[in-house]
Amino acid sequence: MIVPVVQNLMNAYVLAGGKSSRMGVDKGLILLNDKPMIQYVIEQLKPLCKNIFIVTNNSEYKKLGFECIEDEIKNIGPACGIFSALNHTNTPHNFIVSCDMPFIRTKGIEYIMMHSLDHEITIPVFKNHLQPMCGVYNKNILDKWQSLILKDERKLQSMVKLFLLKQLELDYNILFDANFFKNINTPEELKDAKNYFS
Predict the structure, then answer these.
(1) Number of H-type helices and E-type strands within the chain
(2) I need a labelling partner for 166 at 20 to 30 A (CA). Which of 53, 65, 117, 156 fits?
(3) Using CA atoms, how far apart are residues 138 and 86, in angstroms rounded to an integer?
(4) Where is 165: in which H helix or E strand?
(5) What is the residue range of 82's domain?
(6) How many structural domains are present in the chain?
(7) pLDDT one digit per residue (tens) for the chain, 198 residues
(8) Tell me, what CATH number does 143's domain have?
(9) Can you state the angle between helices 142-150 and 78-88, rounded to 10 degrees?
(10) Closest CA to 91 of 52, 144, 125
């Protein structure tokens, strides 16, 4: 059963930044077994968040029926996508995730959300790797986050450590496996994903 406090306290933002150099096209709109990749992410978020937004500069995403938020600053990567989400949100806590993570699951997302309410940023850690593109960000970091961007700090792995950060260790949690945090970046990885969902 989904905990109601999560639905009331969190918006969800899916970052769909645009053309991938390794994929050659907008990853979120790539069909994964006849469904846009971003749709897999959205479907797992729906039971948890009443409000789901897409951060993108591509108007094609509007066809999915969700409000689209443009990047406040163009062409600097996911750091600005997070800033744009926090600048837009009306909830204190916000789940932010990349559009190219089709293996995430509702129960795992809920677990991350429920362990995030006492920190500025909560980031899962799996196999010693921080996963900043699948975490919870508090709106109150907005000004400091913007100042970091203006100082040309763009690396998420470094930025998140400058806040009250909760690193949520998940190696031995049965809700998570190696696929959960996997990004689809190349045609080869897309092929493997199609086999997984077939």
Answers:
(1) 7, 8
(2) 53
(3) 8
(4) strand 165-169
(5) 4-197
(6) 1
(7) 555 555 667 999 999 976 565 555 788 999 998 899 999 999 999 999 999 999 999 999 999 999 999 987 777 889 999 999 999 999 999 999 999 999 999 999 999 999 998 899 999 999 999 999 999 999 999 999 999 999 999 999 999 999 999 999 999 999 999 899 999 988 888 888 888 876
(8) 3.90.550.10
(9) 150
(10) 52
Q: CA 136 → CA 9, 19, 60, 123, 154, distances in Å?
A: 11, 25, 26, 7, 18
Residues 19, 32: Cα–Cα separation, whole Å: 17
Q: List the structure tokens of 137.
A: 């960000």
Four-residue CA torsion sign, 130, 133, 139, 144: positive
Residue 190 makes CB contacts below 8 A (sequence gap 6+) with 23, 30, 32, 184
Following DSSP, what letter does each residue of 40-101 receive, concatenated?
HHHHHHTTT-S-EEEE-S-GGGGGGTS-EE--SSSSS-HHHHHHHHHHH--SSEEEEEETT-
What Rg, from alpha-carbon coordinates, does the chain have? 16
